[in-house]
Amino acid sequence: MNFRTETNSEGAYILYLEGRIDTISAPQLRTAIADIPLDTSRVVLDFRDVPLVTSAGMREMVVCGRRFPGDRLLLRNVSADVLEIFHMVGFDNAFNIEKMEEDLSTYINHSFKEILSHQVREYGDLTVLQNDHDSYTWRDIDTASQIIASDLAAMGVGKGTHVGICGANSVNWVLTFYATQKLGAIAMLINPSQSAAEIGKICAIGDITVLCYGEIAAMKDEEAFIDEVCSCEGTSVSNTYAIRNNVDLKTRFSEIDALIGRFEQTVEADSPCTVIFTSGSTGKPKGVILSSYNLLNAASVQVKLQHMTDQDKNLLIVPLFHILGLVVCFIPCALKNAKLYIPDNIRTDNLISIMNRERCTLLHSVPTMIIALLNNERFNKEDFASLRCTYLAGAAATEAQLKMFREKMPQNHFMIAYGLSEMAPVSVTLYDDDDDHILHTVGKPVENIQLRIIDRENGEILPDGKPGEILVQGFNLMTGYYKVAIGDQAIDDEGWLHTGDMGYIDNNGYLVLAGRYKELIIRGGENIMPSEVEAAITELPMIDNVKVIGVPSDFFGEEVGACITLKSGEVFDEQAVRGELLKRLAKYKVPSHFFVFDEFPMLGSGKIDGVKLKKEALERIRKQ
To answer: Would you call 97 helix, strand, or coil by DSSP?
Structure first.
């Protein structure tokens, strides 16, 4: 336990407490209290950073109360959880106690299990989760997750068990996540848009022993699909558990009486609780280990940035297995008692109907999905008049796209963020930022994280305005990658995460991305950033989307290749495009190869699948 003291202008002696007050720390607290002069007229114990007080800690409160009786002693910033302990032993009226205001710091030292318990206790009958045909209060969520936890426990799930959750967004996905947290298990989040073989590979990488599966796009024959997953090389899945949409946990609510009081063991806030697998767009997927502390604190930042209140309603269309779905959508709603609406499908007709009926206020998505909504013949500005905040994720919006978004949704606040599965958010544009910041930066670094730009060759820290590798560390940084050798971890010996991204800080303190080092094209000794070439190609009126890649060259080593999709009705004229690009780019940066696609292969996160795209482009070159 840590202590910090100060004396305010009125002569009050303030003792700031940090950590648990239990059998181990109680003697330290007694010593600290004994050091306070007996003639001190006012003693304040600040509990802001105290997550738990045990019986031993309560005994020290008695000692302190005897030394400084009556109004001489004030206990302030006492959390609801700690106040409940005072109430439990009948001391809540024996001391002058000021309850901590309901703010974000309440949650930073709690686990998901404790958050759920708190929300059920304080807001049990509040509806916070909904789909197209049902709704759930906090008490419903607690009951359903208790039933799932019991089922999983019967399969051997307990503290530290690796439980895979693989399925499209659903109420049952959320309930299962809470169930794993009640058991102290680790929720291993799997992209459901993959094949059985790919899912089996992830299960093997993550040493998953129990797989909870919902709606999976490639699963036509349920039994055959699950058999294929479980038979993959290296897979240790011994049990599977269906959480598909046809599983209605409410039909089992009568079972809850027999389950009350189970799974009461403490789950520490900073214990591993979740693993997110990197997309694999650059090779073998890696398991990013995160704790409740990481995720809840990251989400609490989002509550502030999005100006969230308990009146908000988030229409969830980004995947929950991805960091964006977790820390921008799901968890902030849970912290703020905002409603999370999970549609049965994300077809634009259905989303428009939901917006008309539910008046959602938050809708975070990739630009292509927003465009699809706006292009639907049923789109009506009035249906989206309630919408006030949208994160544009996955890929940067173009100037033309953002202009269209502003015209169709004039009351909405658009935001851009930069983050990784390993640490998110890193930077975010502000709620009222202008288009220049949204189009050309990824926002300001969020509070309480550290960011530096270094020269990758010599490790020197670079000044603002000079591009280099982005390094970050802070409260939301992962533990590390699961079962990856220490030498291959992305965190260095000073605790900095090396992102592999290139960028710089501009004159206003905003972070500007310049691309990824692994995507850097070196043509005859000249360094070419794909993002620069992509920006020039995007300005051409016939281009819908573009991804620039490096392609092998016998003479130059590498050359520039541009994979493009065209707007409806457009015809690609390579000579004309080259002519236009020569006005915007140095000759050596103009692509040597153009590859026209009907559509790009996409990852579940909404990003272009660079591995598949480059593989097809190189195959086209080989066939020439």
So the answer is: strand
CB neighbours of 37 closer than 8 A, spacing ≥ 6? Answer: 13
What whole-number distance in Å separates Cα of residue 392 and Cα of residue 364?
6
pLDDT in tens, 103-136: 444 446 889 999 999 999 999 999 999 999 999 9
Structure tokens at 21: 């007050």
Considering only CA atoms, which of 177, 176, 170, 171 is closest in space to residue 192? Answer: 170
Q: Which two tokens stand for residue 545?
A: 């989307």
Q: Which of 250, 242, 194, 206 is nearest to 222 (CA)?
A: 242
> Model pTM?
0.77
Which domains occur in the chain, in start order? 2-101 (3.30.750.24), 104-307+317-339 (3.40.50.12780), 520-623 (3.30.300.30)
**Three-state DSSP class for residue 357:** helix
Q: How far is CA 49 from CA 20, 272, 375, in A?
A: 9, 21, 50
Give mean pLDDT, residues 577-590.
91
The secondary structure of 460-500 as a DSSP string is: PBPPTT--EEEEEEETT--SEETT--GGG-SB-TTS-EEEE
Distance in angstroms between the alpha carbons of the first and the last residue of the chain: 69
Average pLDDT over residues 542-563: 90
CA dist 302 and 433 (Å) reads 16
Give burial (CB, 10 Å; 0-12/13-18/19+) of 173.
buried
pLDDT per position as a tens digit, 439-497: 999 999 998 899 999 999 899 999 999 999 999 999 999 999 999 999 999 999 999 99
